[in-house]
Amino acid sequence: MGYPPPMGQYPPGYQYPPGYHYNYNYNNYNYAAQAPPAAYYYNHGAGAYPTQEEMNAAANFARGFLIGMMLLFFFIFASTILFWVVLRPQVPEFHVESLTVANFEAKESSFAASWDANLTARNPNTKIRLYFNQIETFMFYDDQPLVSSYANPFSLETGAATGMVTKLATNSSVDEEAEDDAVEKMAEEYGSRGAVEFSLRMAMWTTFKSESWWTRRSTVRVFCEELKVAFVGKTGKGSLAPDTNRECLVFV
């Protein structure tokens, strides 16, 4: 009738159409043997998941780190409390004994002066020694720095006091607008009042050391403000006025 013969009844040499399976038994195909192993889905899924052991290790590490940080903060807090209760530290005290100015000259484009300051430094602590390892001094006018220098290092035993000398000098041209305004104001005060107010400030790299075990390093900042210098006529020489506050502010 024109239909193709049943499968397997084609004459010898007959070419079967593409995709045509000759005597293929679909019922005997072993699908389970061809399935990928379970590890395939674990390693090739949306993302690799850590094992329970790995999660436990990460949790233990985080817990240990947190406990360590808490112990560290507790140690620092306890040390600070012990330090304040036992040692009772106090900042050093500074008092200006004298301040003299020489060669003072304030012009429109230049400024010159030299300062000699004598101070008394006192250690009020009874259990802590003070070592002033590096001292940088500054002279200001109306919050405008005029000159800086270095003073000699020194130390203070418990309850002791000592003298301190610092010398500063400048002879320079005025370049910036702020310096020009400061020099103009100084010239006006010098001419009209015969007195000029300066500020002596110091930055002191200091070691606080107890007689036993404790040591701390800090920067002590000293502010000797509104030091009024009265000049003798127009000689350019002056000294600290009697009504000037000579006590300095100290910050650590």
TrEMBL record:
One of its GO terms (cellular component) is plasma membrane. It is found in: Membrane. Its main location: membrane. It comes from the Eukaryota. One of its GO terms (biological process) is defense response to other organism. The chain crosses the membrane at residues 65-87. Keywords: Membrane, Transmembrane, Transmembrane helix. This is Late embryogenesis abundant protein LEA-2 subgroup domain-containing protein.
